[in-house]
Design brief:
The protein has one domain. It is globular, with a radius of gyration of 22 Å. It is an all-alpha fold. The chain starts with a helix and ends in a 12-residue tail after the last helix. The protein is built from 21 helices and no strands. Helices cover 65% and strands 0% of the residues.
């Protein structure tokens, strides 16, 4: 087990260690850290009170603010220290994921494979290389601590101390990022598999959706905390939530289903990743209908084979955890974001890893095949993730990459022009950016500025 933990730390550092040489970027890093006087002063009594009593940058996540304050206390405004904290938190999360899966499934190599893919998949780059996304890696850490504490609680006789520890870890996680509001449902999923706590239902007339009363009741405190977090988030983001006048419900629903399928595809083909994807213009409803049909077909296939319980847990983990950020309640201008996959895609890694291993169970040389496959996948993902991480070295490279990978990205042009202006770089490229910045539209504009 120690060897796997060291390996996870090493490959994660190989991908993300380069960020220690990177700068802050002009996308949320400024209001979060550089121009935030409460954070920049480090840990102070006034700052701690501010973190718990104020919403800033359309967010209420006091524990995340405290972590930024601690970084400023230790490193000042040197970006290397802030990047180091993100990398270390991500390493810890990947190791905890391996340990939790090992504890709950007793499948050593499958657990290690899931943790390794999670650690170095290119979709993790945004969460780790972006200082302002501290909330992702920090909430991920407490999510794993919550699952670990819950597994320990579920496997032993009931104890108020062990139960209270689960609630505490979940509460702290919510104060890192409210996306963890779906954790009560995730706990029910791992009750189904791999903890197999649904075995209490011995009446075969019950369906898989029938939840034992005890399992439902013990989730009530978690649901209460989740509801409180939702209220706090809605209050903090009331000025950033887009109305249905600017973005119709049909477009949001279409984009939501399309995003589910896009995130699914990017597991296998993580290319053309950008920090911001503009909201699509034409045909989004048509794409949404096609995506819904595909998702429904996958869901029907999963439930038809529910004897393999990991299929149900993995698939619903993915669908449920993406729900809060899928875009029905639209905040900001992005159609989707790589960072939103940080925790939801773990469900898919579980599903695929266990499914491949089961399909090869009768093969004569399955160990050689599976080990070769795992090494190849991890090697390719490491190479791709290192390349993707290199685009985060500064604001210019970040927004240049976004312009290359997307079309009609007004925000990318604007932020690139600002980065060039601040550094006094007036090259031929920046002159082109200035023209776009003045809202001279491209010939084939598909989305309004």
């Amino acid at each position: 087990m120690l060897g796997i933990c060291v390996f996870l730390g090493a490959i994660t550092w190989l991908v993300f260690g380069q960020t220690l040489r990177y700068e802050f970027v002009n996308f949320d890093d400024v209001p979060y850290v550089l121009d935030n006087s409460e954070v920049a002063r480090g840990l102070t009594t006034e700052g701690v009170v501010w973190a718990f009593t104020h919403a800033h940058a359309a967010n209420w996540h006091p524990v995340t603010w405290l972590s930024h304050m601690l970084d400023c206390q230790l490193y000042g405004l040197k970006p290397s220290g802030h990047h180091l904290t993100n990398v270390l938190l991500h390493i810890a999360t990947a190791i905890l994921l391996f340990m939790v899966l090992r504890q709950t499934t007793a499948a050593f190599w499958r657990s290690a494979t899931v943790a390794a893919i999670f650690a170095i998949h290119p979709l993790r780059v945004e969460s780790v290389a972006w200082v302002a996304e501290r909330k992702d890696v920090l909430s991920g850490l407490f999510f794993m601590l919550t699952l670990g504490a819950y597994a320990r609680y579920a496997r032993q006789p009931w104890s108020p101390g062990r139960y209270g520890l689960v609630v505490l870890m979940f509460a702290i996680g919510l104060m890192c990022k409210p996306m963890l509001v779906t954790v009560p449902l995730v706990l029910l999923l791992i009750d189904y598999w791999p903890l197999n706590r649904f075995a209490a239902l011995k009446d075969r007339r019950h369906t898989m959706f029938a939840i034992p009363r005890r399992l439902a009741l013990e989730k009530l405190p978690f649901l209460g905390l989740a509801a409180a977090s939702c209220v706090a988030t809605l209050i903090a983001q009331k000025g950033s939530i887009q109305t249905f006048v600017g973005l119709p419900l049909s477009s949001r629903v279409g984009n939501a289903f399309t995003s589910y399928v896009t995130y699914l595809w990017q597991i296998f083909w993580p290319v053309d990743l950008a920090v911001l994807y503009p909201f699509p213009g034409h045909h989004i409803v048509v794409f949404g209908i096609a995506s819904f049909v595909l998702l429904a077909a996958i869901s029907a296939s999963v439930f038809a084979r529910r004897r393999r319980r990991y299929l149900v847990t993995g698939w619903l983990w993915y669908l449920v955890m993406l729900g809060p950020v899928i875009g029905i309640l639209q905040v900001g201008n992005q159609a989707r974001a790589d960072r939103y996959t940080y925790l939801p895609q773990i469900g898919l890694y579980l599903l695929l890893t266990w499914l491949v291993a089961d399909l090869c169970a009768s093969w004569r040389h399955r160990r050689l095949f599976l080990s070769t496959l795992a090494v190849t996948i991890i090697g390719l993902l490491t190479f791709t993730a290192r390349a993707q991480t290199s685009h985060w070295r500064n604001s210019e490279s970040l927004w240049t990459r976004a312009i290359v990978c997307t079309s009609d990205n007004a925000i990318a042009y604007t932020n690139l022009a600002e980065a060039c202006f601040q550094k006094g770089k007036w090259t031929r490229r920046s002159l082109i950016v200035r023209k776009r910045w003045k809202l001279i539209p491209p010939k084939r504009s598909r989305t309004p500025l």
